[in-house]
Amino acid sequence: MSWSGEFDFRSPEHIVFGIGTIERLGELAKGLGSRAPLVMTDRVLYELGATEAAEASLRDAGLRAEVFSEVETEPTLAAVDSAVEAFRSGGCDLIVALGGGSTIDSSKSVSLLLGNEGKLTDYHQRRVGSDWSPKRTVTKRGAHIVAVPTTAGTGSEVTSGSGVFDPETGVKGWAGHPLLRPSVALCDPALSVSMPPSVTADTGTDALSQAIECYLVNRFKPTSDALALKAIEVIGTYLRKAFANGADIEARSAMLWAATTVGVAFSNGGLIHNHTYAEVLGDVTHLPHGRLLGITLPHILDFNLIGCADKLVNVGRALGEPVDGVSAGEGAERAIAAVRRLMADIQVDDRLSDYGVTEAQLKIGADRVYAQHEARSAYSPRGFRNQDEVMGILKAAY
C-alpha cells in the first residue's frame, strides 16, 4: 500500500459502550438539552419490556418520555410519517431509537423530515448509473438521536444512512447525510442477549460482510482498513459463540463492538457488491438482509478473488487461517473456505432456491443490480462488465 494517497474520515460524535450503560441514557439525553424525548421501538420489543430500563433512566433524569412502539420490521414511508406526527404531537425534542437497524434507520428519517422540507423520497439516492445524487440535500438536523442497538450487525448506530421501503415502487430508498448520524451511540451488550440464534446469525453475517466488503474496496483508506480487519478477527472468534449461547455476555459484547466498529469503517470506506445484491434481493424477495448477504458472500468473494488475492490473504489471517508460507492464490482460497465454514456453522449456508426464490425474481434482481452497479464497480477489485456476470453470481447462489 502506498501512503501517498488522500482520504476523508468522519468519526461518530459519541460512543458509550458497556454492560449496564443503558442506565446512563437519561444523563446523555439531558446533556443534549432534551426535556421530552421520544423513545422509538417496535411492538415486539415494547411488549417484551425492552424499553423499561430506558424509560426509567429518562424519568430518573427528570425527563418526560413518550413511547412510539409502531416501528415496522421493514420501515415504510407511512410508518415514518406516523412517528413524525407522534414526535410533534407529543412536544418531543429528541429521539431515542431503541432496537435493531430498522428502528435506528427509521429514527434518522424522522429526524430528516423534522428538519427539512419536502418528501422523504426527495432525499433518497437515485441508484441508477454512476450518479446516485438525490433530488434534495439534507441541510438541517431535525432532532438529536441517541441510538440504542439491541442487535449486533447493521452498525446503524454510527452511520449516516437510512433505508425506508416504498410500497408503491417496491424499492427501499436510501437517504444519507452526516447530519443524520446519531449524536450518541449507546451500546449496552446486555440488551442483545435475548436475540434468537437466527437473528444473531443474520445480524452477525451483516457485520462480517460489511467488514470484508469495506476492506476489499479499492481506495486509500488505511483507518477503515485497520478497523475492518480487526472487526473480522473479532467476528471470526465470537460469532459462533454468540450463536451457540446467547447468554454468553463476552461474546455478545465482542459482537456489538465489532458491529459498531464496522459501521464506522464502512461508512467511510464504502462497500462492494454483496450489499448491492442483498439490497435488491431484499426488495424483491423480502428475505432477511443478513441471510441474503450470507448466501451470496462466498460467491462474491469467488468472483473478486482475481483482483484482490493479497487482501483476501489478510482476511484469512484475521479469521485464523494458516495462510503464511503459501501463494497469494492459495491463501485467498483458504480465506473464502473459512468464510464458507463460518456461514455453515451458524446455519447461513442455504441457497436462494431453498427460500422459494424464483428464476423470474433472479432476472429482476440481475436487472436492478446491473442498473446501479457502476458506482460500486468503480471501486471493486473486479467490477461488472456485463449483465451475464451479475446473473452468474445469482445462479451460483441459487
Concise structural overview:
The protein has 398 residues and is an alpha/beta fold. The protein has helices at 25-31, 43-47, 52-60, 77-89, 101-115, 197-216, 222-244, 249-269, 273-285, 289-318, 328-345, 359-371, 374-377, 387-397; strands at residues 15-17, 37-42, 66-71, 94-99, 144-149, 161-166, 171-176, 184-187.
Fold and architecture overview:
- The protein starts with 14 loop residues before the first strand and ends with a helix.
- It has 398 residues and is of the alpha/beta class.
- The strands form two sheets. It has a six-stranded parallel sheet with strand order 1-8-5-4-2-3, sandwiched between helices.
- The mean pLDDT is 96.
- Helix 9 packs antiparallel against helix 10 (289-318).
- The chain is 51% helix and 11% strand.
- The chain has two domains: 15-192, Rossmann fold, CATH 3.40.50.1970; 197-397, Dehydroquinate synthase-like, alpha domain.
What's the arrangement of secondary structure elements?
Blueprint: E1 15-17, H1 25-31, E2 37-42, H2 43-47, H3 52-60, E3 66-71, H4 77-89, E4 94-99, H5 101-115, E5 144-149, E6 161-166, E7 171-176, E8 184-187, H6 197-216, H7 222-244, H8 249-269, H9 273-285, H10 289-318, H11 328-345, H12 359-371, H13 374-377, H14 387-397
Gyration radius (Cα, Å) is 20 Å
| Major β-sheet profile | 6 strands, parallel
| Percent helix | 40-55%
Number of strands: 8
CATH superfamily of the largest domain: Dehydroquinate synthase-like - alpha domain
Q: Please, how many helices?
A: 14
Average pLDDT metric? 96
- CATH T-level fold name of the largest domain: Dehydroquinate synthase-like, alpha domain
Order of helices and strands: EHEHHEHEHEEEEHHHHHHHHH
